[in-house]
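Hi there,

I know you've been waiting on this one. I reran it after we fixed the sequence typo, so this is the corrected version. Both the input and the resulting structure follow.
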Amino acid sequence: MARFEIADAASVANGGQAGSAEVFFQLGMKYATGRDVDADLVTAHKWFNLAAMNGNKPAVGYRQELSLEMSSRDVAAAQRAAREWIRTH
């Protein structure tokens, strides 16, 4: 990931700019794998959901794969978080 993309991802994750499908996907990967952050499947699912909604096809599969490891309550929390992010950005 290029340096500017890392800055973009940090800005998006911290409530900054709207971002792109690729930035959302990279954030999903970051939280799914625990790269530079604590692994958090709910947060990863949220970012994959936003990436998928913006046309990132691989995010659909990753989101589905994560869902198999999550409780229905956690999936619902991730979906609420994605809706809230959309509402506020």
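Quick highlight: The chain has one domain: 3-13+21-88.

Best,
R. S.
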